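Quick check before the chapter quiz. The format below is the same one you will see on the exam, so make sure you can read both the input and the output lines.
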Amino acid sequence: MKFFPPPVEIAEDEGFAPQKDLFQRAPFGDGLTNLVTVAEDPLVIMLDSAWGTGKTTFIKMWAGQLRNAGFPVIYFDAFENDHVDNGFLAITAEVLRFSQSKKNTNATAHKKFLRSAARAGGVLLRTGARIGVKAATLGAIDATDLDALKSVADDIAKEASTKADEYIEVVLRLQSQEKEALTALRAALVDLAKSLSSQTGEGSTPKPLIFIIDELDRCRPSFALELLERIKHIFSIKNVHFVLAAHLDQLENSVRFNYGEGLDARTYLEKFYNIIAHFPDSSRSVRDKVSNKYISYLVDKMSLQPGDLTILNKVAEARSLSFRTIERVVTCISLARQFTPKNHLWLQPIVSGLCVMKMLDTSLFNRARAGTLTIDDVRTALSLDNWADGSKENDWMMEWWIYCVAENEADYPKFDWKGCRQSLAQYSIRDRRDLVRIMASYLDRFRLPTQ
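Here is the expected output.
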C-alpha cells in the first residue's frame, strides 16, 4: 500500500497530455514557448508560485512540449543536487551530461566546452583561495626579552609586507586569468548550444537552449544563491534561456539567511531575473473540478476507500487547498488507517475531519485530543459554511459531528440520537463525547513534516 502520493509521471517528450494537465495550463505553456522563441537577448524567467501548486508537473510537461518543437532542453532538479559544494560545477556538469546524452561527445563544440569549463573551473577555485601570512608563536617573556621581541616584530612586519605584495600580485593575475577563461567558456557554450540544436533538424535557424532549474527554493540558501549568481555572471549568453521554478518568498528567506535581515531581499533578487511569470488564475468552478479529479486520482493510486476522501473533497473546494496540502491530508488519512487497531471504531467523517485539522489547524486538533472541540470549531476547521447546500452526503457527515461534539442533546431535538447510539452499541462507549478524543489518539501515533 502506498502512504505517499506518487508524482504524476511525465515522459520526457509527453507534453501537455490532456489527462494529466489537470489545471489546463497548456495555453500558459504556449505563451512561454512564444517568449523563448522570439527573445533575442538571454532571458532568466522566474516561475513564481507557492509550494504545492504544480510547478514541477507543469515544467516537465512544458519541457516535453519544447522538445517536441525541436528545442534542446535541460531539466535540473536543484534540490537533488544541493549536496554539490560548487554551483559552477553543478551547472557545467549538467550541460556536459546533456551533451553526452545526445551522443555529442565527439563533436568539436562538446570538446571545446569541456576544455573551457575545466580551465574556468580551475581558475575560479584558485581565485577563491587565500594566501596566509606567516606568523610566529611566542612563549612567555619578561622585561629582559624586550629587545629580542622588537627584533622579531620588525622581521614579522617585513615578512608580512612582502607576503601582502605577493598576495595582491597573485590575485590580480588570477582575476585576469578568470576573465579570459570565462570569456572562452561563454563562447564555447554558444557553440555547444548551436551544435545541440542543429541535431533536431528543425530548419536552419538553431533554437535556443532552454535550461530549466526546478526546486530552487528548497535548496540550502548558500547553494541557491550561488546558482543564481553563476547564471547571472557566467551563463547569461545569447541563445541560452533559463527558467527558474521557485517561490520568491522562500528565496527571499534564503537571502536574509545568508546576508542578514536588514537586506532588501526582493530588490537583491531582482538583479538575477528578467521576468516573473505567474500561473493564470483559474475560476472557482475549474479549481473545484481539478481538486475532485486529483483526489480521485489519489484514491486510485493509493488504494484508498473512496469514502475516506469524501470530506476532503468538500474541504478542498471550500478552502481552495493546494495539491501539496491535499497530498498531506491524504497521507494522514492513509496512515491513520494503519495505526487504528483492528475492530476499533472508525467513523470516516470524524477521522477525515481530524486529519484535516491535524494538517491545517493544529490548535483545533489539540482541542479534539483534549475532548473540548465544539460544533463551531468543526465549522471553522472544515469551512462548513462554504459547502454546497442540499447534499444528503453533507447531512450524513455533519450528523456524526453533531453526535460526537454537541454539548446538549436538547439543542438538536430532531436529531436521531437513539439511532446513532444503537449503531455504536458494539463498541461499549459510554460517553459519546469521548469518540473524537479516542479517534484523535490514532493520529497521535505518527507525525508528518510541515512541508
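If your answer matched, good. Confidence is low (pLDDT under 50) at residues 129-143.
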